[in-house]
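Lecture notes, structural biology module. Today: joint structure prediction for complexes of six components.
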Amino acid sequence: MAAAATTPGQRADMVRNRRLLLDAAAAAFAEHGLEASMGEIAQRAGLAKGTVFRHFPTKEDLLAAITLRLLDQLAGAAGRLLEADDAAAALREFMTNGVEALAADRAFCEVIGRPSLQHSEVRDAIAELCVTVEALTARAREQGAIRGDITGTDIVLLLGGIHQTAAPLLATQPEAWRRYLELTLDGLRTATPSALPHRPPLRPELTDSALT
Amino acid sequence: MAAAATTPGQRADMVRNRRLLLDAAAAAFAEHGLEASMGEIAQRAGLAKGTVFRHFPTKEDLLAAITLRLLDQLAGAAGRLLEADDAAAALREFMTNGVEALAADRAFCEVIGRPSLQHSEVRDAIAELCVTVEALTARAREQGAIRGDITGTDIVLLLGGIHQTAAPLLATQPEAWRRYLELTLDGLRTATPSALPHRPPLRPELTDSALT
Amino acid sequence: MAAAATTPGQRADMVRNRRLLLDAAAAAFAEHGLEASMGEIAQRAGLAKGTVFRHFPTKEDLLAAITLRLLDQLAGAAGRLLEADDAAAALREFMTNGVEALAADRAFCEVIGRPSLQHSEVRDAIAELCVTVEALTARAREQGAIRGDITGTDIVLLLGGIHQTAAPLLATQPEAWRRYLELTLDGLRTATPSALPHRPPLRPELTDSALT
Amino acid sequence: MAAAATTPGQRADMVRNRRLLLDAAAAAFAEHGLEASMGEIAQRAGLAKGTVFRHFPTKEDLLAAITLRLLDQLAGAAGRLLEADDAAAALREFMTNGVEALAADRAFCEVIGRPSLQHSEVRDAIAELCVTVEALTARAREQGAIRGDITGTDIVLLLGGIHQTAAPLLATQPEAWRRYLELTLDGLRTATPSALPHRPPLRPELTDSALT
DNA sequence: GATGAATGAGTGTTCATTCAT
DNA sequence: CATGAATGAACACTCATTCAT
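The predicted structure, tokenised, for the full assembly:
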């Protein structure tokens, strides 16, 4: 009844609903891929369809939000690991977390690959993630823990690749990605590196490609 | 009967249409992923919708056909490379061809990963490919060209992973996969291999996972 | 909750639409038989196609709903007539109402006959109707108003038969069914009944036949 | 090779194919109703789809042909029974044959009821059947075997009604129609006929209704 | 004449999105 | 602001019909 009290209450609800929706959407996309319907997401969140659209005017918007959350999570982890002493261990931990996160979020790869992604926030988040991971990678490079020709953007891209390698086994061997992560790490720290036949991708290229 | 063999007639048109359709479907799926509609495929092929369904009674059937074509192509290449003297070079060439082929067929990865794949022909073709690639891999292993803990099924899975790593760059740097292939090869032939933390996938697990 | 009951609002519209749809469907089926398309029904109701499917997720569901409405109407009439003094007049009135109702609902006969009818509600409603009509028939039998070898299920089946007899005349002589109803009633009350060559159908047989 | 010999040979094939098609169509329609597809009919006949359309340019035409065959069969039977001594027995036999034939030809009722039937041949055949049956009925009337207010057209219409009465039981009790035929015959020969409340249908009304 | 491949309008159904309540 | 009914553009798929061989 207190006029002032209602507004914060509603705000609180909106925040709660937004979180419910993001969780529901993540679960739904993880299970059915991008084909998961807005209706199912609403149901999982225990909300009405209209409410979903109030929060995310478009399915693409919801996708962007969920992707941003993952990117933020990864960037946060990378930032925290910058403080670690052992750069090699830090990089390994980042990649472990990263691949694991992808496994829980089947939509992510599909979203990253889709050329129609319009959201500049996502592009910015990807770029930012690449910057932080480059810092992480640079330390490992400087410590001689990994070869010199690998960039942070390489590392970010490799997360998706490792996940994809193990994806066909997800149903029967959900931990198989660990095998391919290790194999990749062996490639990164090889004592006898080949000359890589293609220059490293630049950050803007990654994000632009997500645009074109 | 002899007459029938000499009279290509209608049959020739059908063969041509089938090829038109497979090509159109590959292109459409490459562009829009599995969401590409049967209608668009028909249009791309310059045929009527009904014709698509005469050739492939179901979207799933068309998908299976397109996937089989790719698998056959890979298995054929692998088989031919079994004759080569230099096992390491042969394996490298197989993987090069493989990743290149995947780039042209974006549907492939989505199809391989999809749990509902019902076509036993596809499952059989995957299994067969794994067998041939295992032979190819075994020779490289025996020649000491790659580490001892990598199987043919690993190699097949890695094709998808390498492709995925470079996929976000496809639009701007279509050759970027070469970088990640080389990196992977470095991992495969490392002089100081780590103990891989997960046992190698068995062939049946791969194909079963495509089933479950 | 009290508030919800007093606020017809949206709900009122939905109820109205449901009725519009049932009426439109009845008309469409009456005109074109079961081939009437969901699209046409939507158009007749002045609603969009999607709305039809929101109310009745399947054509079969719509069919079931329309059939249930008719069955309920018949069962209600039969129940009310159980109170009448003159059992013969009551039975006649029931049959009159019944055949008249069928004339307005050409789908009914096709639905009743269709073996794939999955809806247990319809089966239950048929069974229930047969029970009530058996009560009505029993009274007439006991009063000697009709022969002793006729059951309620016979009466229910005869409604469809009488309707069908006059169906080819519907367009030019919409009241012709009265002629065949009277003829049937004469058969039912004949003073010199033949031995009927086939045992009476059991209720479960009727409903099971709609199942098998 | 003899130029003259080919024509009769082809003629013979055409006649054979026509019969194959009519039988296949009758079976298919009996099983699935009018929804039976031209494709299935072709398959059942062991012929190609094109051949069906050479014989019957339209599904409606095939329907008409099949219906004509049934009508001819009934008219033939009625004609033959005109010679019998016992008119009552003859009428009973005609009706028995008639209802039995309908049971084997589920399409017939649907065809008779369908207002869009355009074929004048069918209309003529119905009219002719009514004439012959009227002769049969007249004899029974004159012999006092049935009531005086029943016409041949009534009898023809009753065939469909009796069949429909038992139709819902067809799957579980294929002979149930005998029960309702007997009941109808009791109505026809009742010693105390009611005044039928609607004048008898005229032949042209029947056939016109099939037109409107 | 027989064949069956091609056609394309039509069907039931789904789903992102809008909007009245 | 939340709700869920209404919308209508797709979609996969079917089938009578046409026509090149």
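Point to remember: Chain B has two domains: 1-57, 59-209.
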